[in-house]
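re the bet — no i am not wrong, look at it urself. input seq straight from the record:
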Amino acid sequence: MPEGDILRRTATRLEEALTGTVLVGAELRWPAAATTDLRGRTVLGTVPYGKHLFTRFDDGRTLHTHLRMEGSWRLALTGSSAASGRGGFVRAVLVSSRWTAIGDRLGMLDVVATRDEHLLIGHLGPDVLAPEFPTSGIHEALARLASRGPVPIAEVLLDQTVLAGIGTIYTAESLFWRRIWPWTPADHVTDPASLLMTARDLMERSVRSTSPTTTGEGGRGRTSWVHGRAGAPCRRCGSPVRVGAARRPPQERPIFYCPACQSA
C-alpha cells in the first residue's frame, strides 16, 4: 500500500498540474459519484493527510481519494494518447486545458463538502509528515501510542488511528534504524519520540529524492535497509534479514528486520 511519502509526491504532482486551472472535462467512475459534474470548476489545490488525498474546488466541494493497495494518480498531456482515460481500472479523470489527471485502481472515492473533510479523517492520528508534527502533532501521537500499552510496537506504528501515513515499509525501516525488535511491547520502547521522528525523517528523505527511497540511494536492492530484503545480508552487520508478521489474519502485514541489530 502506498505510504505517506508517495501520497506527498502524488499531491505535489496534482498540485503543480491542476491548481488554478478550470476543468474542461471530468469523469468519476464510481457508483456513488458517477453523476457528479465537476466540469467548469476551478481546482484550488490538492492536499494529503496520511494516506488520503483531498482535491478541492472553488464551489466548496472536495474530491477525496485513497490509493489502497494498488491505486495511483498519473498525469498526461491533454489530447495525447496517454490521456484517453481508457481502461477497466480507471476510476477518475480530471481534464484541464494542459494536463489530464487519471486515477487508476483507486480504492476509495467520495465527493464531499470541503467543510466536511474532517468527517472522513477525524478518527486518524496526526499526519507524520504534516508541517506541525514536530511541534504539536508528536505529542498527540505519543499519547495515542502510550494508550496501546503492551501491543507490539510494529502493530502500533501500522495503526492509522495512532499515527497517519506509516505503513509496512516505514514501520520496518524506522524500527531498524532505532535497533528495536518489531514485537517489543509499545510500553517498553524507551524513546518513542525518537522512533516517530526517525520515521518522519526517513519519509522526508524519500519525498526529497528523485524516486522513493529510505536510504537515499537508488538501484535495485539499495532503496531500503531491511524492507523487502529477506535473506539478504543486513546492510549494517551482514546478518541475513528475516521477515515476520504483525497483526493477525486476515490483517497481517510482513515486517522485515535484522535479528542481530534488532534482538528480542
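see?? The beta strands are 25-28, 43-49, 52-57, 61-66, 72-77, 90-95, 99-104, 108-113, 242-246, 253-257. told u. also Residues 115 and 187 are 37 Å apart (CA to CA). so pay up
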